[in-house]
Write a structure and sequence with these properties.
Blueprint: H1 3-21, E1 35-44, E2 50-58, E3 77-85, E4 93-98, E5 101-102, E6 110-111, E7 131-135, H2 158-168, H3 184-195, H4 200-203, E8 225-226, E9 232-242, E10 247-253, E11 268-269, E12 275-276, E13 283-284, E14 287-288, E15 305-306, E16 311-313, E17 319-323, E18 326-327, H5 333-342
Parallel strand pairs: 1-17
Antiparallel strand pairs: 1-9, 2-3, 4-7, 4-10, 5-6, 8-9, 10-15, 10-16, 11-14, 12-13, 15-18
Helix pairs in contact: 2-3
């Protein structure tokens, strides 16, 4: 942690003593701590919420009937591309506060980082974030099949989750016995049983508040909502942050990798998290890695999106705006650097 956190601890102890003594002599006491709830919004371009899926379709003869493979006796299939644009495509977004951005170390904008202290682990430098948050978390959805595949704030309800996997991704959810799950209530009840909870609020998988005052829980209550430009926009809040004038907010998106066997997201460790050992079930629920803000470069892969420009925070009451408009592996970081220098 940064040395300023130690200094803050000393101030807090001093303040505790002062609060106990000052009321004997005065009516109030001001700590004058630079701690604020910082607010902002993340905008993700429409193309980042678009994925091309490879799905199987039956081969049909001239009469529209399936062609049977003479060797297997099964209908022949062929792979086709299916393009999907959907808020459910969006993985977790990680928002951090940094000393600045670097456009020369990686092939994408990355937070400035210090020297490598963990040479024995072959780790490069730490970005030492001042703090941060996420827009959507990778959550345990109570079935082994869904480990490292579900992000909070993306599904209106559990039936929406079933529809996404079974009908859109065409990768049906399976229960412990290998049967296809067709009802969202099955997932909900499984979660209630495994996690010993009694409400969706405790699960934190789906929205439970009518944020947009529409009178119902719907797509307007998800983290990301489609805006007038067709892009997807979300608000964020970094609670109780130590404010340092001029530090930089930056964000990145872990993109969906559909069809992956164990995890749809590189930021999820499938060997950690909730452990289930009931009867014949023996699996881990998955958990996000702990250094995603410190070392984004360890988890960044081609296709992820990052903010090409950071937001320099000079006033704690400013509302930050971060546009994740730089695609890793596709866009040119040197061209962006030159562009920023010329502005």
């Amino acid at each position: 942690m940064r040395h300023h956190l130690q200094a803050r601890t000393r101030r807090s102890l001093a303040s505790t003593v002062a609060v106990a003594i000052v009321p004997l002599f005065a009516g109030c006491y001001a700590e004058n701590l630079s701690i604020y709830d910082l607010e902002g919004r993340v905008i993700i371009p429409r193309e980042a919420a678009t994925v091309t899926l490879s799905v199987e379709r039956p081969v049909l003869d001239g009469n529209g009937d399936p062609v049977i493979d003479p060797n297997t006796g099964l209908p022949q299939t062929t792979a086709i591309d299916k393009e999907v644009t959907d808020v459910r495509v969006l993985g977790p977004v990680y928002v951090g506060l940094y000393s600045g951005l670097d456009y020369s170390t990686e092939v994408y904008p990355h937070p400035s980082r210090g020297p490598a202290f963990q040479l024995d682990q072959q780790l490069e430098g730490d970005a030492y974030p001042y703090g941060g948050t996420t827009v959507g978390d990778i959550r345990f959805a109570c079935l082994e099949y869904l480990s490292c595949k579900v992000v909070s704030g993306r599904f209106v309800d559990f039936d929406d989750m079933v529809d996404w996997f079974n009908n859109v991704l065409e990768d049906p959810i399976k229960d412990a016995a290998g049967n296809t799950v067709t009802n969202g209530d099955y997932i909900r009840q499984t979660c209630y049983d495994l996690l010993e909870v009694t409400s969706d609020q405790e699960l934190r998988l789906t929205p439970t508040k009518d944020v947009d005052d529409s009178g119902a829980i719907d797509a307007g209550d998800l983290d990301f909502v489609e805006n007038a430009d067709g892009d997807f926009e979300a608000s964020f809040r970094i609670w109780q942050a130590d404010f340092y004038q001029g530090f930089t907010a930056w964000a990145w998106l872990d993109t969906l990798n559909p069809g992956a066997e164990r995890t749809f997201y590189t930021t999820c460790n499938p060997d950690e998290g909730y452990t289930e050992t009931t009867y014949a079930s023996n699996f881990d629920g998955g958990l996000q890695y702990t250094d995603l803000l410190n070392r984004p470069y360890l988890y960044m892969v081609d296709g992820d999106y990052v903010a090409g420009r950071g937001f320099e925070w000079n006033d704690p009451y400013d509302v930050a705006e971060l546009v994740l408009d730089f695609q890793v592996g596709a866009d040119d970081v040197e061209a962006l650097r030159l562009q920023l220098e010329s502005e």
